[in-house]
């Protein structure tokens, strides 16, 4: 999944493809908070409430996640073996924050 994220991120950077640009933020009744989407349907800054700004991608209901960060030039993928039904993704968020720290970024 992380390799797929790398390919999508590189494809989007090639010519600033319109399909991966951030759209306007609208209320998403599935996750119960406002989310911006790209024209291709990827969420943008969906994890900003957790202090993870600048990420594009999506997360599944069971906790799996595929996200990439254009500025940091990194991709994050996480697949869980213990599904749970919640909007927050505490395991993946914790791992993403450590990835950002290791990449030299700042996380609140």
What's the short version?
The protein is built from 2 helices and 6 strands; from the N terminus they run H-E-E-E-E-E-E-H.
Give your account of this protein's structure.
With 108 residues, the chain is α+β, with helices and mostly antiparallel strands. It has a domain of 75 residues. Helix content is 24%, strand content 24%. Strands 1-2-3-4-5-6 form a 6-stranded antiparallel β-sheet, with helices on both faces. The relative contact order is 0.17.
Helix % is: 10-25%
Largest sheet: spatial strand order? 1-2-3-4-5-6
Radius of gyration, whole Å: 13 Å
Distance between the amino and carboxyl termini = 26 Å
Element string (H = helix, E = strand): HEEEEEEH
- Total helical elements: 2
Whole-number average pLDDT? 80
> What class do helices, strands and sheet pairing give?
alpha+beta
Q: What spatial form do the alpha-carbon principal axes imply?
A: globular
Pick out the low-confidence regions.
Answer: none
Estimated share of beta-strand residues: 15-25%
Number of strands: 6
User: What about the largest sheet?
Assistant: 6 strands, antiparallel
Topology readout:
Blueprint: H1 2-14, E1 25-28, E2 33-37, E3 43-44, E4 55-59, E5 65-69, E6 74-78, H2 90-102
Antiparallel strand pairs: 1-2, 2-3, 3-4, 4-5, 5-6
Key traits:
108 residues, alpha+beta, 6-stranded antiparallel sheet, globular
């Amino acid at each position: 999944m992380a390799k797929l994220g790398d390919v999508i991120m590189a494809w989007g950077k090639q010519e600033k493809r319109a399909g991966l640009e951030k759209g306007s933020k609208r209320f998403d009744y599935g996750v119960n908070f406002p989310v911006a989407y790209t024209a291709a349907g990827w969420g943008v800054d969906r994890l900003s409430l957790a202090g993870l700004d600048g990420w594009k991608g999506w997360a599944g209901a069971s906790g799996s996640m595929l996200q990439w960060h254009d500025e940091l030039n990194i991709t994050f993928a996480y697949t869980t073996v213990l599904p749970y039904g919640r909007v927050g993704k505490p395991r993946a968020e914790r791992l993403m924050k450590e990835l950002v720290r290791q990449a030299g970024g700042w996380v609140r």
